[in-house]
Each structure stands twice: as structure tokens, then as C-alpha cells.
Specification:
This protein is an alpha/beta fold. It folds into two domains: 156 residues, no CATH class; 129 residues, CBS-domain (Roll), CATH 3.10.580. The chain is built from eleven helices and nine strands. It has a four-stranded mixed β-sheet with strand order 1-2-3-4. A three-stranded mixed β-sheet has the order 7-8-9. Strands 5-6 form a two-stranded antiparallel sheet. A hairpin with a 2-residue loop joins strand 8 and strand 9. The two termini are 30 Å apart.
């Protein structure tokens, strides 16, 4: 899901990071607070003060979202779910897990703990704000505290909306799952509600823009687009896991892959292999089936075309990393996730230093399309 992720720190064994989209959103939040929200509510302060309030407010929101997602992660761990970490991205955060919750009760508890944490934060900041009023704290200090109280209540309310994959949508899914004992059906229904809510927000955004509220309309439009796409992709992800679950790479791999010799010239590699088979990566084989490494079109491009005829593949061969090799016993879902992470459409299947096959994204997607089409109709 997150190809461009910046690791920040570890908290109780959970790795916290940010997607690069968060850099954009953090700047936008700080700008909105500094030039709009705080000047409107607290007049006659200096520009530097407004910007300082905006930056601290954005950092406070950052910390609040981490606590919100951390609550999900701790609860998930109690129910035996393996969590990769917490990643902040363009519209909040996500606690990353490899699989679906084991039961409706586990999903309900994991989903509800995030909003509860936000409500508790909102109450805490509100009490601190009241304390500041009593002791006469300056407006810049109390203004940021009041904002953090309000924004945590807003986060809790928004996340409790029954629109999957928001927390409220996951609560709804857990209830539907409990009632019908069918996770796929529950996900399909809650995802459609989430997608519909996203469309509603997009329409609302257009109305806001027509009423000369461009900034507010822009926010609602982006959130609506995100919710709609996230709801659809969440259901597709579940279908993928159900379709591929239990299958290993050996089920899909081709045992007669196209390979090249280290003695092949780059010119022949390009003309006879790249242009013919349309692959960007080829295994390099020595001594019948021993994998010497791999060669990619990226490495070929680094050499001037004038030397392609005299340069051999063996001069460019590089050791194949774990990012483009799997074993026959690797779970198919894990292989698909690796392809998504690296952007590669082919993975080499190895046992020791021997190449025994290649698995391609096309073959896995063809199987997925047929299986989902047949079973959805059924």
C-alpha cells in the first residue's frame, strides 16, 4: 500500500512512519490554520504567531492521529493480529495488518478503540483549555489547545460514520458479519455504503465551491475521492485474499521461463528477448539451471547504445535480491504484495541457487478474474 514510506520511530514494537503524501497534507494543514482558522478566531496577532500556532496545531494533529491508530494496533495485538506498524498518509493514518480480523468481535473492538481514544484526547484537551482560561493563559497557547480539543472530537465523530473503511464502517461490517456469518457479504455491503458516502461528499464539495467556499470544497472533494476509492479497493483486497488464500507460488509459476546466457550481447538481448517477450527483467542462467543473477532493462539503458554489440550480459548481471525472488512455498498473496511493493510484474522462483520457475502478475490476475467472476455470479 505504501511504496514511499519514511520510517520515523518505534513505539512498543510498532513501527511508525509517514507516507510522502503526509508531507503535502501537513504543509496544507499548517497553512490553513495559519492563514485562515487562527486569524479568524484570534484577531490582531502577528503573522509569525499565527504560523507558530499553525505548525504546533499540525504537529498536535499528527500526534493525535498516532495515538488514535496506536489504540487500534494495541487492541489488534490483544486479539492475536499481527500488525506491521502505523503509517500516516494523506487523510489520516492506518494501522497496517496482514490479514482480516479473526472474528466479528475482534473487528468491533479494534475499530471502536480508535474513536474512543480520540474522544478521551478531546476531553483531556478541553479540560486543559478550561484550566488555561482560569489561569489566564495567552490566546496563542489556549487557542492551539482549544483547536486540538475540537479536532479530536471531529476525528472521533467522522471516523464513527458507517462508511467503510472508516472505523464506523468497520463497526458496521462487524455487526453484519456477526448477523450473517459471511465476511465477504458484510464487506461488500459496507464497502458500497462507504463508496456511496464518498460520492455524497464529492457532491457536497461541488456545492461548497459554488457557494464560494473553495478551500472547504477542496477538502471535502479530496476526502470523498479517497473514501470512494478506499472502499472499493478494500473489497477488492478481500476478494484477492480469499481467492489466493491457501495457494502457494508453485500453483501459478511457469516451469519453462525465458532465460538468457551471460555470454549474450546486449544488442541480442534487446532485439531477441526484450522486444520479443516484452519483459523488463530476465534471469541469467549458467550450467543448465544455476541462477547467476538477473539483468534488467534499467541496467541496459545505463550503457551507451554504441557498446551494446560488444558488451555481454555477464558484465551487467547483478545478484537477485529478495525483492525479485520467492520460493515455491511462498504464499501467493505474499508474492502479489511483493509485486505491488516493488512495481515488478515478474518474480523468479528459486530453490537454493537453482531457478525452477517464474511467476507473473498476468497469470495471477487471470486466475483472480476467472475465480471472482465465477464465484460472484454463483
Amino acid at each position: 500500500m505504501f511504496e514511499k514510506r519514511l520510517k520515523l520511530f518505534k513505539l512498543m514494537g510498532f513501527e511508525v512512519g509517514v507516507d510522502l503524501s503526509w508531507v503535502f497534507i501537513a504543509i496544507l494543514i499548517a497553512w490553513s490554520l495559519s492563514t485562515g482558522f487562527f486569524p479568524f478566531h484570534y484577531e490582531n496577532l502577528s503573522t509569525q504567531t499565527y504560523w507558530l500556532m499553525g505548525i504546533i496545531g499540525a504537529l498536535g494533529l499528527f500526534a493525535s492521529i498516532i495515538i488514535h491508530e496506536f489504540s487500534h494496533s494495541v487492541t489488534a495485538r490483544r486479539y492475536g493480529m499481527e500488525m506491521k506498524g502505523i503509517t500516516l498518509f494523506i487523510f489520516g493514518g492506518v494501522a497496517e495488518m496482514d490479514d482480516e480480523p479473526p472474528s466479528p468481535g475482534a473487528e468491533f473492538m479494534m475499530a471502536i478503540m480508535g474513536p474512543i481514544a480520540s474522544i478521551l484526547l478531546g476531553i483531556g484537551f478541553y479540560l486543559l483549555y478550561q484550566l488555561g482560561n482560569q489561569f489566564g493563559w495567552r490566546d496563542p497557547v489556549n487557542g492551539v489547545i482549544e483547536y486540538l480539543s475540537d479536532i479530536n472530537f471531529i476525528l472521533a465523530i467522522f471516523n464513527l460514520l458507517p462508511a467503510f473503511p472508516l472505523d464506523g464502517g468497520r463497526v458496521l461490517r462487524s455487526i453484519l458479519w456477526r448477523v450473517k456469518q459471511n465476511l465477504k457479504w458484510a464487506t461488500r455491503v459496507s464497502s458500497r455504503i462507504g463508496s456511496g458516502f464518498g460520492i455524497f461528499l464529492i457532491i457536497f464539495a461541488v456545492i461548497q465551491v459554488l457557494n464560494n467556499n473553495f478551500i472547504g470544497g477542496m477538502w471535502w472533494f479530496l476526502i470523498g475521492m479517497f473514501l470512494r476509492n478506499a472502499a472499493k479497493s478494500s473489497y477488492q483486497q478481500l476478494l484477492t485474499q480469499k481467492a489466493l488464500g491457501g495457494h502457494t507460488v508453485e500453483r501459478f509459476m511457469k516451469t519453462d521461463p525465458v532465460t538468457v546466457s551471460p555470454d549474450l550481447s546486449l544488442k541480442d538481448l534487446v532485439e531477441d528477448y526484450v522486444y520479443r517477450h516484452h519483459f523488463k527483467m530476465f534471469p541469467v542462467i549458467q550450467d543448465s539451471d544455476r541462477l547467476a543473477g538477473c539483468v534488467t532493462t534499467r541496467e541496459v539503458k545505463q550503457r551507451p547504445k554504441e557498446v551494446w554489440e560488444t558488451t555481454r550480459v555477464g558484465e551487467l548481471v547483478s545478484l537477485c535480491s529478495s525483492e525479485n525472488t520467492v520460493t515455491p512455498e511462498t504464499d501467493a498473496v505474499e508474492a502479489l504484495a511483493l509485486m505491488n511493493k516493488t512495481g515488478s510484474s515478474r518474480l523468479m522462483v528459486t530453490r537454493g541457487d537453482r531457478l525452477i520457475g517464474v511467476i507473473t502478475l498476468k497469470d495471477m490476475l487471470d486466475y483472480l478474474t476467472l475465480k471472482i467472476d465465477l464465484e460472484e455470479d454463483a
